[in-house]
């Protein structure tokens, strides 16, 4: 049965916009696209698309991400819905922002599928269209909070990583230098990494041991005693 | 300029639904409304409304709340946007859920303005239409998290409250009994309450001292040293 107490003109366009974070072992990056249509043609933008009739918002965000990256198994989380009346000068559009974490080192990742897209170091990211700067800021705040309470950072790391890379990641997310010895002690006390018998020889003559995240152990610990990554 | 790469049929109805929490000094409650139209006529529902052309989502949620409560200065926070294709069997509707915290003891509050609305203890709340149960659960999870890190609970308390009422509130939010002595010690160590020279004589012969929340002190503490309500 159709309801009749609303009018067709109450309808709005609903978009998703994705804040895509990646990590290149040194810096946290965000994936942006150069806009090739008006308004704001030529400016940098988040990657977005409109919600279709046959999908929910999570599916719309996953579709947009797959188009851009070829990946269909990305960490994706709804962030916030933006609705300022004039946020898009073209036509009133409400946008649901999602943030995604990509392991750019994954063998499934062939790189970006769209020429006008580019990774930027967060610190060097250009000004974005509409309210997209605000979206990125909110995503960073969420990432900071999540990274303290969940092992979310491992979504951004290669499967095998050095302690230095893990520290680089947390420093990028938290936006501050961490003391190396304290960091290593803290991570070791969490007891969720497996140290491999294998070194990354590209970082120094001596090399640096590689680690993997022990997801099973982590989940068991959470169940038994709770868990916090607070550094 | 109008964009033309989308179609009018991509448009959707956008609603807001509000999870309204109140606290009667003993129990955490949620405000529900009996639905008087199809589909699901006669069932209990969150309070909602459609987004209008001339307002953003925050304004829409505030408008819905004011219609129901007469209050226009309510703590209100966007929660999550729900978009399952068939969530509303009437017509595809996307809903942005907000949660609100009401001080039901405030002198500005004249009670509910709509006859079909009613407060329910959370534990005794009926089954709700659509995905509204899911919304209430998510709001509770958010409230639990927030109550541990921000003094958000004071939005629900009367201006002057007893230590027992504060403990009741935290027990309601966290869904577990707290040890009285530990609770009082923890709250005292936070040092953000002012003990008044005034007692609530309705609770016992001896009465119980009343407290107020010292917002200025709290804000100063947050600025200087951060803050956590972890109990």
From TrEMBL, chains A, B:
It comes from the Bacteria. PROSITE patterns: NUDIX (PS51462). Keywords: Hydrolase. Residues 13-143 form the Nudix hydrolase domain. GO terms for molecular function: hydrolase activity. It holds the Pfam family NUDIX. Signal peptide: none annotated. Gene3D superfamilies: Nucleoside Triphosphate Pyrophosphohydrolase (3.90.79.10), Winged helix-like DNA-binding domain superfamily/Winged helix DNA-binding domain (1.10.10.10). PANTHER family: ADP-RIBOSE PYROPHOSPHATASE (PTHR43736), SLR1690 PROTEIN (PTHR43736:SF4). This is NUDIX hydrolase.
């Amino acid at each position: 049965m159709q309801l009749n107490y609303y009018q067709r003109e109450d309808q709005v366009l609903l978009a998703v916009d994705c804040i895509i974070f990646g990590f290149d072992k040194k810096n946290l990056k965000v994936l942006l696209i150069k806009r090739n249509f008006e308004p704001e043609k030529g400016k940098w933008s988040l990657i977005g698309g409109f919600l279709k009739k046959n999908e929910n918002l999570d599916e719309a965000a996953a579709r947009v991400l797959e188009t851009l990256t070829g990946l269909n198994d990305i960490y994706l989380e709804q962030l916030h819905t933006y609705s300022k009346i004039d946020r898009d000068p073209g036509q009133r559009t409400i946008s649901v922002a999602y943030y995604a974490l990509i392991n750019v080192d994954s063998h499934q990742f062939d790189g970006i599928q769209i020429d006008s897209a580019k990774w930027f170091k967060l610190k060097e990211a250009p000004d974005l269209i509409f309210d997209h700067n605000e979206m990125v800021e909110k995503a960073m705040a969420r990432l900071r909070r999540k990274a303290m309470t969940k092992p979310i950072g491992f979504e951004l790391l290669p499967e095998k990583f050095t302690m230095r890379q893990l520290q680089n990641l947390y420093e990028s997310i938290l936006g501050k230098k961490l003391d190396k010895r304290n960091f290593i002690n803290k991570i070791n006390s969490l007891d969720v990494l497996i140290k491999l018998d294998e070194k990354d020889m590209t970082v120094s003559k001596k090399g640096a041991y590689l680690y993997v995240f022990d997801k099973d152990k982590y989940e068991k610990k959470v169940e038994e005693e709770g868990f916090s990554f607070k550094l």
